[in-house]
Automatic annotation (TrEMBL):
Keywords: Carbohydrate metabolism, Isomerase, Magnesium, Metal-binding. Its cofactor is Mg(2+). This is Phosphoglucomutase. Pfam families: PGM1_C_vert_fung. One of its GO terms (molecular function) is phosphoglucomutase activity. GO terms for biological process: carbohydrate metabolic process. InterPro entries: A-D-PHexomutase_C_sf, PGM. The keyword Chloroplast does not apply. One of its GO terms (cellular component) is cytosol. It comes from the Eukaryota. PANTHER family: PHOSPHOGLUCOMUTASE, CHLOROPLASTIC, PHOSPHOHEXOMUTASE FAMILY MEMBER.
Amino acid sequence: MIEYLRDLVSKSKPDNKYGSYTLQFVDDFTYTDPVDGSVASKQGVRFVFSDGSRILFRLSGTAAAGATVRIYIEQFKPDVSKHDMNAQIALKPLIDRALSVSKLKDFTGREKPTVIT
């Protein structure tokens, strides 16, 4: 699945539409340690949309096979009345987009996550 997403990095262009979201950029991000300056590449595939929403796919674990797929979904809601909403409800459009773009169910056979935090 991660290789599939990395292939999307090379094919995606700014302003591509993902449902109602407009892509600002997509990358396989690199992390630079602020203390020792070491660089770790291929840390996850990140989709950033023009409204600031982000979807990040990362593998957790030391091996590519059998690793845990982590999906981080973030969206800024300026409307203070929505800040206490259940995250699953507030982020549902982005969650649906993440599941669709990643083809997670096709790759893993899972219908739902084993952990939600």
